[in-house]
Design brief:
Two copies of one chain form a homodimer.
Chain A (H helix, E strand, L loop, with lengths): L8 H19 L6 H8 L3 H7 L3 H25 L3 H10 L7 H15 L3 H24 L1 H5 L6 H21 L6 H20 L9
Chain B binds a DNA duplex (30 and 30 nucleotides) through helix 3.
Chain lengths: 209, 209
DNA sequence: GGAAGATGAATGAACGTTCATTCATTGTCA
DNA sequence: TGACAATGAATGAACGTTCATTCATCTTCC
């Protein structure tokens, strides 16, 4: 009864990226050393170079994985029955992890990296555009958005929604480490609901619904 | 006829910090070397150590200066005659510089640094809290805010405003380098006005005012 | 002369990357 | 089956480079 192959090539890459995420969040892209990552992953330094050409390739692969994850979140948001629930999914996606502030820190670092690495900038812009198009579409089809929205076009609303989402992410990295995932989630949801009320509540409805 | 003393001790520090801002925005806190900074400032490496204990002290001093600048922006916003103008000042403050994306990149980097450096995190949190208190106060006193605002409390509105502001800053670092300060400013103002309309326009007023 | 300002070569630690080597696993053939 | 060969995943010491920091030295100005 031989133990099944524990690590496929794909799993190794994933294992390295998981470790890299933790190290990058803890120290930043450029302060995290390859030794840090190998130690976190419980493997040797050299092995990383069997799966990634160099450190930049690790960063790129992380960005690519982030892109896939965002697309999945968008798909889930698309399937939600109401617009409010879609927004809640978008705003709390990063809180599903067991360490939300790790994800937040990574994303803020990703934007910082994008500001000087054109390749990363293109990728982030692309992710953002796709996600915003999706949400614009979501709003355009939503019955809630017809009556309210103060004459703003769907894409203008989407732009505001994503600005708030990014802004809350930045806020999240300032929270003390001790704050739990559940607490972060609650905060995010509060803001999401306030934003939703502002954007989509029919003006005739009572304001304190 | 001796040239008058060009650099006082205070000016030297400012000169070094100006150079550091450019280098930090261009390469990031930890990728920018002391040689980069000294070259940008047009002085020798060693001289930096006459005015700053070490590299971390340069970063801290930059964060401190950022704090002072934010306070000044807040003062200007406070003196504006209407709430809309206050918001416009807050949202476009970084566009007053001749290189807005430099400021944006620096601030995003600052938040990234805050996510792992508790000292920087405390400072940024403090700045943010002061600024938010100021804006909360501004809203509470503003006649525009009384009738509208969908039943949201002033501090909840302030939280949303700052989230959008940070989110737009992150957006700004994705813009291609070629985009001019004026274009950035226009974009920021558009979003500010949309947000303001959403938050404070009386619901009875025509939506497309 | 001497105090303060300024220089940049020197230093040593830390980093990304390489590669000779090890060894568990798999395949081959009697 | 068992002895032997082949494989390639995994290791970590070593290398060359970069970087923050120091300090002996030079300049300026009173």
């Amino acid at each position: 009864m031989p133990q099944p192959q524990i690590e496929s090539s794909q799993d190794r890459r994933t294992q390295i990226l998981d470790a890299a995420l933790i190290c990058f969040a803890k120290r930043g892209f450029h302060q995290a050393s390859m030794h840090d990552i190998s130690a976190e992953a419980g493997i040797s330094v050299g092995l990383i170079y069997r799966y990634f050409e160099n450190k930049d390739a690790v960063i790129s692969a992380m960005a690519d994985r982030h892109k896939k994850e965002i697309h999945e979140v968008l798909e889930r948001a698309r399937r939600a029955p109401t617009l409010l629930e879609s927004l809640e999914i978008l705003f709390t996606a990063h809180c599903c992890e067991d360490a939300p502030q790790v994800v937040s820190a990574f994303v803020v670092d990703l934007y910082a990296e994008a500001s000087r690495n054109p390749h990363v900038a293109d990728l982030v812009r692309d992710v953002l555009q796709t996600a915003m198009d999706g949400v614009t579409d979501l709003i355009a089809r939503s019955p809630e958005a017809e009556s309210a929205a103060h004459g703003l076009k769907p894409h203008e609303l989407a732009e505001l929604i994503f600005a708030v989402s990014r802004g809350m992410l930045m806020r999240d990295v300032l929270q003390p480490q001790e704050m739990t995932a559940a607490e972060r989630r609650t905060r995010q949801l509060e803001v999401t609901r306030r934003l939703w009320r502002l954007l989509f509540k029919k003006e005739s409805e009572p304001a304190y619904a």
